[in-house]
Amino acid sequence: MRALLVLLLVLLAAALVTVQWLGLLDGDPGPAPGASGAPTESPAAVGPANANATATAPANGAPSGTLVATRLQAKAPEPGPLADQPTAWLRVTDHARGTPVAGAAVRSVQRGGDLAFTDERGFAALPLQEREQLAVVADGYLLRLVPTRLGSTEAEPQAVTMVGDTWCKRRRLELPGHAGAEVVVRFRPLDAAARAASPMSSTEPVITRAWTEHEMLASRPCCADVPVQQSAYAADRVHRLRAGAEVRFTSLGRYAVEAATANGLVARTEFRLEANENATLPLRLELVPGVRAAGVVLDRGSAQPVAGARVSVSGGDPLGLLATTAADGAFAIGPLWPGALSLDVRSDDHEPLAFGPLMAPAGDHRIQLAPLPGTTLRGRVRARPSLRPLAGATVAWQPQGSGMRTAVTGADGTFALRATGAAAARLQVHAPGHVLYAELVEPNAPFADYDVWPAERTVRLELGLSAGFEGVVQDAQGSPQPGVPVRWLPADASPPLGAGALRRVLEGAVLELPGVATTGADGAFVLETNRFGPGRVVVDGAPQSAVAAEAIAGRTRNDLRLRR
Question: Per the domain annotation, does 414 fall within a domain?
Answer without folding.
Answer: yes
